[in-house]
Amino acid sequence: MTRKGLRFRLDGGRTIWPVLGLIALLVLNLIFSERFFHLEILDGRLYGTLVDVLNQGSKVMLLAVGMTLVIATGGVDLSVGSVMAISGAVGAVLVARREIPFPALVAGALSAAVLMGLANGVLVALAGVQPIVATLIFMVLGRGVAMLITGGQIITFEDRAFVFLANGHFLGLPLTAAIVALVFAGTALLTRRTAVGLFIEATGDNETASRLCGVNTRMVKVLVYGFSGFCAGVAGLIAASNIKAADSSRVGEMMELDAIFAVVVGGTALTGGRFTLVGSIVGALLIQVLTTTMYNLGVPPAIAPVPKAALIIVVCLLQSEQFRRHFVRRRQTARPTVPETG
Amino acid sequence: MGRDMSEPLLRMRGVSKTFPGVRALSSVDLTVRAGEIHALMGENGAGKSTLVKVLTGVYPKDDGKIYFAGETIAPASPREAESAGISTVYQEINLIPRLSVAENILLGRQPARFGFLNWKAIHRKAERALERIGLRIDVRREAAAYSVAIQQMAAIARALDVEAKLLILDEPTSSLDEREVEDLFDVMRRLRDRGLAILFITHFLDQVYEIASRVTVLRNGERVGECETANLPRLELVAKMLGKDRAELESGGELRTAGTKRAAPGVPADSEPTREAFFQVRGLGRRGGVEPFDLDMREGEIVGLAGLLGSGRTEMARLLFGVDAADTGQCLLDGKRFAPSSPRKAIDRGLAFCSEDRKTEGLVPDLSVRENLILALQASRGPLRLLPRKEQMEIAGRYIRALDIRTPSLETPIGNLSGGNQQKALLARWLAIQPRLMILDEPTRGIDVGAKAEIEKLVQSLRERGMSILFISSELEEVVRNCRRIAVLRDRKKIGELTGPDIDERKVMRMIAETNEGRDSRGGVPAVPNDPPREE
Amino acid sequence: MKFPISTRRVPLIATGLVLVALFATASVLYDGFFSLRVVVNLFSDNAFLGITAVGMTFVILSGGIDLSVGAVVAFTSIFVATLVGSHQVHPALAILLALCIGPAFGCAMGLVIHFYRLPPFLVTLAGMFLARGMGFVVNMESAGIRHPFYDRVLDFGIPVARGVPIPATALAYLLLFLAAAVLAHCTRFGRSIYAIGGNETSALLMGLPVGKTKILAYSFNGFCSALAGVVATFYMGSGNPAMGFGLELDAIASVVIGGTLLTGGSGYVAGTLIGTLIFGTIQAALVFDGRLNSWWLRIAIGALLLAFILLQRFLSSRSTDRRTALAERSRPT
Q1: How does strand C143-144 pair with strand C238-239?
Q2: Is residue B453 exposed (0-12), middle (13-18) or buried (19+ Cβ within 10 Å)?
Q3: Interface ipTM > 0.90
Q4: Residue A333 reports pLDDT greater than 60
Q5: Which residue of B has its CA nearest to A269?
Q6: Which of residues 4-23 of A touch B (CB under 8 A)?
Q7: What is the pLDDT at residue B6?
Q8: Best-predicted range by mean pLDDT (A61-75, B146-160, B188-202)
Q9: How far is the C-alpha of B442 from the C-alpha of B165, rounded, in Å?
Q10: Residue A118: pLDDT above 90?
Q11: How far apart are the C-alpha atoms of B299 and B297, rounded to whole Å?
Q12: Testing the interface with C: which of A120, A133, A153 to mutate, by most C Cβ within 10 A?
C-alpha cells in the first residue's frame, strides 16, 4: 500500500465529511422520526434520544480519542476491548472490598489499563513488532486475564459511587458526557498546548526524518499506546458501571473495530500523520446515531453491521487515490515526487 | 574489437521521461552491441536507473524509440521485456530471501506437470543454470543462507534462463569484495564471448576500465558522452561524470586560474589555518561504511567532501551525526570527548545534518511549512515547552523571508512546495537551532539553477557569521567554488585533503581518478590530512 | 551460515515440539487423554477453526490479512440451513451454492484491495460487517437442519480402529489440508504467494502475476470460510448467524503459532494444522481437567503468541545481522 494512496486530502478540511454525514443522518431522522429530537426535562435532568446517543456513544468516543493518537503514529490498537474488560474487572473486584475508597478503585483500575497499554507500546516501539500483531496478542491475553480476575463470573455490585459513574447526571446531562468532554479536552490540551501533538504527527508522517530532527520517536510510540490504554480503562469503568457488573467475557467485544472505524471516518488516515480529535468524536457520534436511527426505524440491531460496512467502504474508496482518479480529475497542484533515479 | 561494424542489438533514441516536477531523462541515446560489455555511468540522480526501468518496462517512456534485435519495442512490464530478450539483475538483488535458490532461479516458469511442480526437474534445471556460469552450490537451501555474491550469481542465472540477448546488471559489484568481483567478471566475460550483450551499471572507475569496451555517461538525465574505454582517459571520464567538458580540461592552466578566481567570492584569499579546530575527528570509522578518517573543523570554515558516488561521503556524514554507530575512533568537541551515538545527542552538541535524501530523511510532508521549520528546534526544547504560536510564526516568517522560500502560506503542507523551496525550508529547520557545525549532504540536488545559487550564497553568509560547514556535493565545481579545504574520498576512504591555493578541479579529479595500480592494494595513499597529490 | 536447520523451519519445529509437549503433559495428567478417540476428536471438534486457519494461511503468506472469515462462516451456515429448512432446497445444491458465494466474496475483497490499493485490514473489516449483517438478513435466528442427506453424511465415517470412526467433518478438514498443502508447495500459484509475501517488489520485477495471485489468495480464503461454514452446519446440526464471533482472531492465532510470519512469505500449511491442534489440545485438556477454566485457554494462547512473535523477531534480526555482516565483510580496499 502506498502512503500517498491513503491520504485523505480533499479541499475544505478533513472534518467536513464526517460532519456532513452526521448532519445528513440527523436530517433523515428529522424527516422520518419525530421522536428523535424530542427532549424533556424531568427532575432537572434532560431525557431524549439525543441524550441517549451521547450516553451510549461515550465508550466508543473515549476509545476513539486514545485510538486517534495511536493511529496518528501509524499504528493501531486492537487490545482496547480487552483492556476495557480488565479495567472493569479490577474495578469490580476492588469494589467488593468495602474498605477501598472510590478514588483508589479508579486509580487501581486505570493503572492496570495503562500498564497493558504500555506493554503494547514496548512491544511495538522497542521489540519492533507490527502494531496489529502486538496488540492482537494483548487482545487475546488481556481477555483471558480479565476473566482470570473475575474468576469467569459476572461480578455484580451496588456501590453507589461506582454505579453513579455511568448512570448519574451532571448539570442535567449524563455524567458520561461530562467524562468524555473532560478526557477530550484534556487530550486536546495535552497534544495541542504542548509539542506532543506535533511529535506524534511528525512520527506518523515520517519517522526517520523525525528521528533525525531529534524527536524521540520510540518514546512517543510507547506513550500513545499507554494513553490508549488509559482511555480504554475509563471506558471499561463506564461499561461496568452501566450494567452494575463486570462481564469480562463480553464487555468491549468488537469495540476496537468501532473505535478504529470512528477514527478513520473522522478523517485521520490509517497510515498516520495528521490527526483530528474532533473528527474522531464526530465519527463515533456518527456510528452511534446510525445505530440509534436504525433502531428507531425498526431495523433489527443484528443487521446494523450492513450500513456500517457500506460506510466503511465509502470512506475507504474516498481515501483511495486510484478510486478518485476514476472520477475526479486530479488536482494540478500534485505534490512533486522525487523519482528513484540513480 | 572488430564487432563494431555489426548492427547494434539495442538502440535507444531520444528517450525522455518526466516525473511530476522532475525531468529524469531528456532525449537520451544508448547503443549496445551484441557481444560487448557496455558500461553505464553517472552520479546519483543522473538517470541510470530510470533509463534501465524504461528499457525493462517498469516505467513507460514519455518520448523516444527503442529498437531491439531489429524491431521496435515498447515493453509495458518486466515480463514483456524479458520475453523480448532483455533480462535485468537489479541493484537490490531481486531475490526472495526465504525461498530456495532453485525456486528463485525458476520462479514463475517452474517445470510442471498437470499444474503440479516437478521439484526434481526444478532442482536439476537450477543446477544446470548455475553450472553454466560456473557455480556449484546446494540449490535447495534458501537464498538468504548464501553470501551476497552467490545471490548475485543466482540472480544472473535467473536472468539468463530466458534466452536473454541483453543482460542488464545494475550496480552488481557494490557489495562484493575483490575476489567476488573477479569471479563475477569471469562470468561476464564468458557470457560476452558467447555473444551476449551486457549493460553494466557501476560507479567504480577501475571496473569500467577492466571489463567494459564502451561506456555511456549520463548526467542530470542527459547523455554527456559515449566512448570506447580504450580511447578515454580516466581523467576525462571523471570530468564527464562531474559535469566538466573536455575543452575546459585540456586548457588545464586556464581552468586552474578560473577555478581559483571563481573560488567563492566571499572566501578570503589567505586561509587562516592558525585558528584552533573546535571539532576534531580521530580515526572514526565503521565497517562497510567508511574507513577510519580524521577531520578537523574550524569556526567560519567550509570544508568540502569530494568523491564519486559510493566513495563514503554520506556514510561519513551519518557517522558524525550519530545516525550510524561508529565501530572505532572518537570525536573531540572543544577538547572534550564526544561519542555521536544518536542524532539527539549530536543536536544537543550543536551539530545539524541536512540529509541528501530529502524525501525519506528530511521532509515531514503532511505537516505545514511552519511545523517543519520549527521541528528540530522544538525537539531540542523537549515536548513540554511548546514554542508559543506567535514565536513559531515569527521564526518561520523570518527564515521564509531570509531564504526567500516561496510558499503560499505558513500553513501549506511542505510536500506541496517545489524541490528548491523544500530544500531551503529544510535548511531553515536546521538554521533555527543555530548549530555550530552544519553538515550539508547534497544541498543542491534536484533543484533549479536559481535556487542552487541562492543556497550557495546562503552557505557563504553562514560561514561569515562563524558557522562551520561540511559541504558534500557531487558537483565538483560547487565544492571547489565554495570550500577552502576539501577532503577527497575514494572507495570509502579519505585519501587526502587539499587546501587554499591547491584547490582546483583538475587536482581533485586526479585524486579521484588515480588507480590503485602500482600501490599496495591495502595501503593506498595514507589518510593523512593535507597530503597533496603529486602532479604528473 | 553453519546453522544446522534452515531458519525458516525453526518456528515449525518449535510448534511441533510445543504440541508434543502439551499432548504428553495432558496424557500424563489425565486418565484416558492418551487415546485415539481424543486425537480424532481434536480433528472433528476443531474442523471449522482448522479450515478457516488453512485459508487464512494463504492470505497471511501473501502479506495480507482477512478479518471477515468468522462472519463468512456464520453467513454460510445460516444460508445453507435456511435454504434447506425453509425453502426445501436439497442440501447438496445449497452447499454447492454456498461454496460459490464464499470465493466470490473473497474475490471481491481481493479486487478492491488490489486495484484501489486499500489496506486489507480495512477492506476485510468492512467485509466482516457486511457478511455478518447479511447473515442476519437471511435469518434472524439460528435454524436447525433436518434432512436425510445430513443424517447420511453424519453416519458416514471411516473406521480407523474399533469403535473410532473418522467422521465426515474431520475428513473434510484433512482433505482440505492435504489439498492446501499441495497447492502451497507444489503449484506455481502457491510459490508465487510465498514470493509476493517475501518481497512484493521483487516478485513484480520477476514478472510474477502479483495482482492475480493476491486476488486468488483472498478467493481461496473465501472458499475455505464457506467450507468451514458448511462443516459447522454438520457439526452443530444447524446454522447460526451469530456464530463465529472472534473466529478470525483464533484463526490468525493458529497461523502465527504455526510458525507463519505475519508479514508474509514464510510458513507452512502444516504449521497451521499444528497451531490449530495446539488450540484444540489445550481446550481438550481443560475439558478433561474440569477444574481449570476456559480463560486459561485465552491466556495460554496469548502467551504462546507472544513467545512465537518474539522468536520470529529474534530469528529475523539474526538473519539480517548475518546478511549485513556479509555485506560488510566486503570492500577491503
Answers
A1: antiparallel
A2: exposed
A3: no
A4: no
A5: B366
A6: 7
A7: 62
A8: A61-75
A9: 38
A10: yes
A11: 7
A12: A133
Cβ neighbours of C212 in B, within 8 Å: none
In whole angstroms, give the CA distance from residue A185 to residue A218.
Answer: 25
Cell matching residue C158: 471411516
- To which H or E segment does residue A309 belong? helix A305-319
Tell me which residues of chain A, numbers 237 to 256, contact chain C at a CB-CB cutoff of 8 Å. Answer: 248, 253-254
Considering only alpha carbons, which residue of chain C is nearest residue A265?
Answer: C122
Instruction: List pLDDT tens digits, range C125-178.
Output: 889 989 998 999 898 888 888 888 888 888 887 777 677 788 888 999 999 999
**A322 interfacial to chain C (CB closer than 8 Å):** yes
pTM > 0.90: yes or no:
no
Mean pLDDT of chain C: 86
Q: Which residue has the cell 463468512?
A: C72
Within B161-296, residue ranges assigned H as helices are 178-193, 205-211, 234-241, 246-250, 252-262
| Interchain proximity A213–B385, CB inside 8 Å | no
DSSP per position, A53-99: HHHHTHHHHHHHHHHHHHHHTT---TTHHHHHHHHHHHHHHHHHSTT
Task: Write the burial class of residue B410 (CB in 10 Å: 0-12 exposed, 13-18 middle, 19+ buried).
Answer: middle
Pair B403, B428: CB distance under 8 Å: yes
Q: Is C288 helix (H, G, I), strand (E, B) or coil?
A: helix
Distance CA C60, CA C56 (A): 6
Average pLDDT over residues B383-412: 89
A306 touches C126 (CB < 8 A): no
* Distance in Å, alpha carbon of A331 to nearest chain B alpha carbon: 12
Test mutation, B94, B95, B98, chain C, max C CBs within 10 A? B98
**B313-325: per-residue pLDDT in tens?**
888 899 999 888 8
Distance of CA A237 to the CA centre of its chain: 15
Confidence check: pLDDT of C255 > 90: yes
Residue in chain B lying closest to C5 (CA): B141
